[in-house]
Design goal:
Elements: H1 2-10, H2 14-17, E1 18-23, E2 26-31, H3 44-50, H4 61-117
Antiparallel strand pairs: 1-2
Length: 123
Amino acid sequence: MFNLWLYHHYETDFKYLFRKQKADGHEGYSVTASRAQRLPPLSAEEIRSKSNMVPPVQVSPLIKTARWSALLIGLIYGKQRYDYLKPIAAEERRIEEEEKKLREEQERIYKQLSEANSDTILK
């Protein structure tokens, strides 16, 4: 299947694009320049004839119904869970915002006090 995808994607015939050669005692593959040009795209019939895939299996209606039911139940559960967690998260954000304001105010006061204490002639 992967070779079929590559063949169709790059529009080249891999049987002729690579040629096997032996060099320095080990086997390798090299690209033949003559087949590196673009080939016309494959038709649907050519793809079917070159693939060695098995035909799709007929899925039982009971299994299909169970899958769709599980999907719908998951969507409903997710929506309910989201609606349950949304106000909790909003409250946590509100509390965090208040704490951040208090923290910034404390830092501002600390900075003013540290500047007031550091006022000396040496400045």
